[in-house]
């Protein structure tokens, strides 16, 4: 069983160091985000753990400092379901950080019952896409100032099931938790493609990542029969550390070996779904996102 698992979930490692670099990882108090943050801290980077729950964020920072000698990590409060919180977080970053080399948009909610963000957006679209879209918009000047820099958006293979429902982004007409999740993950892929086009000349590259099926808290809303299937095939489910590999790969791999705007899985460039390659939809989503947030992206 272990031999089969090692074939399906290959090991990956890199000895690249990141001294003098600063990274933000959203949702870094648990799962893939925490493992990503710990790895980057182990490479010498300064890592900001952007967490909704500050108690959990500070505990994660203590855990990482215990595991990584000399780790430079700090927890900051960020609620991606609240645009005011996103503004306050960005303001604190500009007040305390001289540079930002890596923005890893990792946090997310999955397959949850219908609810809305503080600003009235459907929760999965609001957190997984709009929250990170707005955060990236606010931090872009610092990313440009720190170039070469990177934005990494954590998507999912579920994006292939997605369609951007422009006539019902709020989910009020016909909400289904899996469909809403798939839509938000497709939005991550499309956002990455359009962002890459707009920022490459500024020295900011962008990548979307499929971490695979990972045993994290994000699947807590999954019920039977999916939960039973997951249990039966648990040997194929990645640990959070394994799920973080492609995040880290897209952070440390030399830029000339990566494709900006690309979709990555298992530490290699992969093909997203046809919907994920639709530049017309990507451009429309960009315009709609700016309109919903009341921003003008230069």
Radius of gyration: 18 Å
Counting helices, strands and paired strands, the structural category is: alpha/beta
Quote the beta fraction. 5-15%
Percent helix range: 40-55%
Sequence stretches where pLDDT stays below 50 over 5 or more residues: none
> Main sheet, how many strands, which sense, barrel?
8 strands, mixed
pLDDT averaged residue by residue: 92
Question: How are strands sequenced across the largest beta sheet?
Answer: 3-2-1-4-5-6-7-8
Quantity of strands, as a count: 8
Shape: globular
Separation of the first and last Cα atoms? 52 Å
Tally the helices: 10
Q: In sequence order, what are the helices and strands, one letter per element?
A: HEHEHEHEHEHEHHHEEH
Explain what you see.
The protein is of the alpha/beta class. The protein contains 10 helices and 8 strands. An 8-stranded mixed sheet has the order 3-2-1-4-5-6-7-8, sandwiched between helices. 46% of the residues are buried. The mean pLDDT is 92.
Overview in brief:
It is built from ten helices and eight strands.
What descriptors fit this protein?
298 residues, alpha/beta, 8-stranded mixed β-sheet, 10 helices, 8 strands, 43% helix
């Amino acid at each position: 069983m272990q031999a089969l698992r090692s074939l399906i979930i290959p090991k990956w490692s890199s000895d690249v160091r990141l001294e003098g670099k600063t990274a933000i990882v959203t949702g870094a108090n648990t799962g893939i985000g925490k493992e990503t943050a710990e790895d980057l801290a182990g490479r010498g980077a300064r890592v900001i753990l952007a967490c909704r729950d500050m108690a959990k964020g500070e505990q994660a920072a203590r855990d990482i400092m215990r595991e990584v000698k000399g780790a430079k990590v700090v927890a900051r409060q960020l609620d991606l379901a609240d645009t005011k919180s996103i503004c306050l977080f960005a303001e604190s970053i500009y007040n305390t950080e001289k540079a930002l080399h890596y923005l890893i948009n990792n946090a997310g909610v999955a397959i949850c019952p219908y609810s809305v963000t503080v600003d009235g957006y459907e929760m999965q679209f609001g957190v997984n896409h709009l929250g990170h879209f707005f955060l990236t918009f606010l931090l872009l000047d610092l990313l440009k100032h720190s170039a070469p820099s990177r934005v990494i958006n954590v998507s999912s293979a579920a994006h292939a099931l997605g369609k951007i429902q422009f006539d019902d982004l709020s989910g009020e007409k016909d909400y289904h938790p899996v469909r809403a999740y798939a839509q938000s993950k497709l939005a991550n892929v499309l956002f990455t493609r359009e962002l890459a086009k707009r920022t490459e000349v500024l020295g900011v590259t962008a990548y979307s990542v499929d971490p695979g099926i990972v045993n994290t808290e994000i699947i807590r809303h999954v019920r039977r029969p999916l939960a039973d299937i997951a249990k039966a095939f648990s040997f194929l489910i990645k640990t959070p550390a394994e799920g973080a590999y492609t995040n880290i790969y897209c952070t440390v791999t030399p830029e000339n070996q990566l494709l900006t705007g690309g979709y990555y899985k298992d530490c290699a460039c992969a093909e997203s779904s046809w919907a994920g390659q639709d530049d017309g939809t990507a451009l429309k989503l960009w315009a709609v996102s700016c309109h919903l947030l009341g921003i003008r992206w230069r």
